[in-house]
Amino acid sequence: MAAPTRIVIPGDDPPQLQDTPQLERLAAYGAVALWRDRPPSDEDKIRRAQGAVCLINSRSAVKWPGAVLRQLPDLKMITVCGIGTDAVDLAVAKELGIVVCNIPGQTAPIVAEHALALVFAVARQAWYQTDLVKRGGWKTGFNLYLRGKTLGVVGAGPIGAEMMRLGRAVGMQVQAWTFHPTLERAREFGIDFMPLDDLLRTSDVVSVHVKLTDETRGLIGRSRLALMKPGAILVNTARGAIVDNTALAEALQAGRLAGAGIDVFDVEPPPADHPLLRCEQVVLTPHVADQNVEGMEILNRGAVENVIAFLEGRTQNRVV
After folding, report:
1. DSSP one-letter code for 145
2. Tell me, what DSSP letter sits at residue 149?
3. What's this model's pTM, rounded to 2 decimal places?
4. Which positions of the chain have pLDDT values less than 50?
């Protein structure tokens, strides 16, 4: 009798898939091996994933560089538990014939809601004032009133589109930038697309919603941060490496920006000396924009359905 197809979840930390009933659906397709801690080294990744046909990468902090993929000859498919596929060397995956799948768009309203929550929290200095009161302070602050202000959305995918809708719902003027602007998409969203530099110059709030690629890595660096309006707010729920974190911290410390709401970091979790941790006017969350009961179950179901679709020979959410 042939050995069952091996399906591996190599580092489910923090918990994502380990307690979901969705995994029970895979019993008819193979044997699932799940680790509750992150593999501490590339050698551990190889050991855990050896013999796997399908791999569910439940945490983007677990990376799959080309050198690791080349040592997994049985691997045919990887699915991430989200939209971004930057944890996987896509060029080598394509070379080796490994299909990489994601879960596009399904949690867009959940992530956009978190981004809007960060906007409000920064605009109303929620963390700073909470900390002040806890320390016995009592100081009248100046909060930012959002109605009538301009929201600039960087990226026009499903999350960006939902963020545009939410911005309009609270009375903000909305504008956007995308790599692929068309009149049809502008009419669909009811906004104007504009060059990125112009968007940064004219937006009171900038919310980042592009995927991490070679084109977007460092997209908002020191020179572009310098273009932003004095007193503006930056929110990033996409990927940490899209924004130059050191330059952002400098802009905050210098008082050129009013604040930032950050859910993603260039290193996760951020080290104790990370520059943003020294800034008062920030609201920081640990990459949890889609981490609620509804969002996690959407992602868990999507990852399992990607595996099932692949093993049944159906095309679903394939990146390469």
Report:
1. P
2. P
3. 0.86
4. none
